[in-house]
Protein: Porin
Amino acid sequence: MRHILLGAVALTALCSSAVAADLPVYTKAPVVVAPVFNWSGFYVGGFVGGAVADGNANSTEPRGAAPAAPFAPVFYNATAFDNNYSLSNTFIGGGTIGLNYQPSASNWLFGVEGEVGYLKLSRSVVDINPVPAGAPGADSIDRTRIGDLYGVFAARLGYAFDRVLFYAKGGAAFVGKEASFTDKCAVAPCSVNTLNTDYSGTQLTWAAGGGLEYAINDSWSVKGEYLYLATKETYTYSANASNNQPYTVSHTDPGVHTGKIGLNYRWGGPAVGRY
Structure:
């Protein structure tokens, strides 16, 4: 009887081991965290904002000691006379197109962006130097304009916290410019000569700034950005007086600070789950 009981116990143990061996091994499923947003992809967008000059415009009028000047001596100072004046603030608006790349395991973002827009900082001023006694009208008029068209091609470097992106950008820029000088005092005691000249061109320069962008969903994002346009420069342009004598005007433009808000639409770069 004892031998029968021992055999039954042994058989039960063997059967239990066999059944346990056939059962699947339990492993804990990995915990999936919320998807992490990825900024990679092409995008286009638009923006609006404002711009201000970082200083005054300055024009050195074509004046000098007689008899070198083409005007009567009574019309000239012994040295050149400067006009120094501020430019009006301006609305800006335009569009952007760009490409972002963010490695899937990184918070860093690399990209390029093109921007084309409109701005217009300008002013016309009457020479603060008094008109010679007895002469009606203005002595001279200076006019400056920075704009209307500008463009920027820049590299972007950013650091993303999921859907929030901080970035810096910098690169090349072009800005349209105009300047003019008009001297219309031709009534005694001024000389009968007048001068009317203008300059128009495009400045190639640099731009730098940065901003904050927030992804509303997988396609749309909003941004706020500051950008400095390095338009400050001094240049000269020549003109002929009414008596056909050549002259030169020296002009200095200020730099431009811009601030804008924008909306972008992006293709590519879906959210990525991290384990």
Residues 26 and 88 are 74 Å apart (CA to CA). Confidence is low (pLDDT under 50) at residues 64-79.
